[in-house]
Amino acid sequence: MTQALTEEQVESYRRNGFLTGIAVFGRAEVAVIRDQIEALERDHAEVPGGQPLERYFRVNGHLVIPLLADLARTPAILDAVEGILGPDLLAWSVELFIKEAGSNKTVSWHQDLTYWGMGETDEEVTAWVALSDVSVQAGCMRFIPGSHLGRIVSHEDTFDAGNLLSRGQRIAGVDEERAVHGPLSPGQMSLHHGRCFHASGPNGADDRRIGLAIRYVTPGVRDEAPGRDYAMLVRGTDDARGWINVAGPRGLFAAADLALYDRVVTDQAATLTAGATADVALYGQKAEKLQ
Known about the structure:
There is one protein chain. By secondary structure, this protein is an alpha+beta fold. The chain has one domain (7-290): q2cbj1_9rhob like domain (Jelly Rolls), CATH 2.60.120.620. 25% of the residues lie in helices and 21% in strands. Strands 1-7-4-9-2-10-11 form a 7-stranded mixed sheet. The longest helix has 18 residues, at 255-272. It is globular and about 50 Å long. It starts with 6 loop residues before the first helix and ends with a helix.
């Protein structure tokens, strides 16, 4: 499946802020990956130390789950991302977004870069890989073309339990008439810019909607960024050394990796929860304790 983006695809991404329908896995490969994810759910509902598995699926799972680290290194994904960001790539975050069949869970309109502490950078992209059928009915992503060409806009924190975002953050007043759906077949992925407005609806299908989101950055992103942050080098070199480089897990939930995970989340939490007035549950602490 390895294939670089065409010039037309790169131009479409530059113009619209997103690109969909990129094939990275065959159906058989997707079936194996899904089986591995569901085996983790079956066998590791609680991780050593007492944390739920969902925490690691949703925050920095590549630090403690070899499968997620390996997926972030997939050549077909990296070939496409290289067409956007160039040859030196780091994985900043790897997450699973799972909506059960019939689930009313949604993701509100938002821009990814809002709370990441990376400013207005163009040197990042999210690769969102479908590990099940992600149809319109199943709640695929929607995008507002060209919205990445503006600045980061104001977001409201709702802390809505039905919202998959960590703070239930949302942009008010989005013109839904302009929204473009991005359905994906199993094994396809989309790419989107961190300032691109995007959202997704409930899963009205009969199967789970399983998506893998990998946030890629370049070495230069942290040239102007405050604080400490971590990323895993997946292609090329990091000559800038602005990131604290991590190597990926030693094994599944290895004790040393779990300790590193706690350190990374602690160092990231002040940035990712900045301004929040309530508990940002995915980071395990009250925002006011982190500021």
